[in-house]
Amino acid sequence: MEVSGLRELLRKLEGFPEWMREARRDALAAAGREMERTAAQLVLVRTGALKQSIYSQVVGEVLHFGAAKGYARYVEYGTRPHEILPVRAKALRFQVRDRIVFARRVRHPGTWGRPFIGPAVEMTKEILPELMREKLRGWFRK
Fold this sequence. Notes:
This protein is α+β, with helices and mostly antiparallel strands. It has two domains: 6-78 and 113-141; 81-110, no CATH class. It has helices at 6-13, 18-42, 49-52, 72-77, 117-125, 128-141; strands at 54-59, 62-67, 82-84, 92-96, 99-103, 106-108. The strands form three sheets. Strands 1-2 form a two-stranded antiparallel ribbon. Strand 4 and strand 5 form a beta hairpin. The protein is elongated, with a radius of gyration of 21 Å.
């Protein structure tokens, strides 16, 4: 996912002194922490593993943000209807209400997405300019 307008901002700031670059990295790190906090509030929690896997990291001048669990994309975007087949056995075993059911295949109807990454980015990108101003003011006080 990419937020529009950030590349242009980064290009404009390329010629600035190193302390401004450090302030920009500080602002990106602060935005990442805010995205993590917002995503953690929005994510659907069953075991807490997905919530615990939410991360942000500034590498160079780029903010990486997401969830490390492999199934995060399915929670974010949902799934199409699909067939589930056993991998290591002859049948699938699952519980429906009080009954144990065995099946050679299941036609899953798909799931709706429960976005938490995209909305966290959208909500945080609005405050990024203010975070940048705040970090720059902090550097002027040093």
